[in-house]
Design a protein that fits this description.
The chain is an alpha+beta fold and 331 residues long. It contains nine helices and ten strands.
């Protein structure tokens, strides 16, 4: 005997009058039997029985499709829960950081700025009572200028700490504070450029971006007498900062490990890593140094849907422009 669609060859039944099959999958089958009489003569054609085995509910295609859909839904739900959990963690960390920033801002205002203001007042009084021909008059005037500059920078830092989002002008003002202590003729060689829409930066990301830009600008002012370009580019998918100068560049050894006792480059890399940004510092072929910082939109901009909505606005604007062009062509 044999069962077509299951047995690969004939089975020897001996004197048994039955055949047993277990775990048959659903499908159409044909059971055939050949027999011999006492003289050893076999039947010329097998006796046959055709039957169909219906599938159980868990063997049907719709059940398998439901299982696949269920697995996909479970995966989507798991991913959404993970994202929600990560977002909640980031929100808690953001709120904790805001609280810490507020506390530092309050301490800065109540202690350091008040002390600097007192020093500045004392220097102003001393400058007024010191005769112009006195030998220490220039140094006293310079100290007064430095104290006033420190007060301005402190107030700028206080404003930065109190901010919850950063506009383009906020970032630009924070960067310009780095040049306040340098001679005016050198600051005139700085060229600022802003491209893209004014998308608000997150407080934490904006602060790190501004600090990286300030460090890069200070390094450029210290090591070059040529032009310095500071470029801020806002796009729907990323924020880009570029600081480029026309100096002598950075030695490869210093670029790789920094100078002993100086932690500017290391601090910039640490700040970039802290917000998940990409920082590239390189010496250009024509001379000079280029600092390029790229921050993904989901990290840089305030609001999780900012980049998507921005991209949607850009796409809608492009579609309207295309439709207008087609209408004009049809006319």
């Amino acid at each position: 005997y044999r069962l077509l669609n299951f047995d690969s060859q004939w089975q020897e039944g001996s004197t048994r009058r039955f055949a047993t099959y277990t775990n048959l999958p659903p499908g159409k089958y044909r059971f055939e039997v050949l027999a011999a009489n006492g003289d050893g003569l076999w039947s010329t054609a097998p006796a046959a029985l055709a039957f169909t085995l219906a599938p159980a509910f868990y063997q049907t295609r719709w059940f398998l499709a439901l299982c696949v859909v269920g697995v996909l839904l479970a995966a989507v739900l798991f991913v959404r829960l993970r994202i929600r959990s990560a977002a909640a963690g980031l929100r808690r960390r953001f709120e904790e950081r805001l609280d810490e920033r507020s506390r530092v801002a309050q301490d800065l205002h109540d202690n350091l700025l008040q002390d600097i203001m007192g020093i500045s007042l004392q220097l102003e009084i001393a400058d007024e009572v010191t005769p112009p021909q006195a030998a220490g008059k220039p140094m006293l005037s310079r100290a007064l200028q430095l104290s006033e500059a420190a007060l301005v920078q402190g107030r700028g830092a206080l404003t930065t700490l109190r901010a919850t989002t950063y506009t383009q002008q906020d970032v630009l003002a924070a960067i310009k504070l780095a040049a306040a202590s340098f001679p005016e003729e050198r600051c005139e060689r700085i060229r600022y450029r802003i491209d893209g829409q004014d998308l608000p930066l997150r407080a934490g990301s904006g602060e790190e971006i501004a600090q990286i830009a300030r460090e890069a600008l200070r390094n450029a002012l210290q090591h070059t007498a040529g032009n310095i370009d500071v470029w801020l580019h806002y796009s729907p998918r990323r924020f880009t900062l570029l600081v480029e100068d026309e100096g002598q560049g950075i030695q490869p050894a210093v670029l790789e490990s920094g100078m002993p006792g100086h932690f500017g480059l290391q601090g910039m890399r640490e700040r970039a890593a802290r917000i998940g940004a990409t920082l590239a510092i390189q010496s250009t072929a024509a001379g000079g140094t280029r600092v390029r910082l790229v921050v993904p939109a989901r990290i840089a901009y305030s609001g999780s849907d900012t980049a998507l909505s921005m991209w949607a606005r850009v796409k809608a604007r492009w579609l309207r422009k295309t439709a207008t062009t087609r209408s004009a062509a049809d006319e």
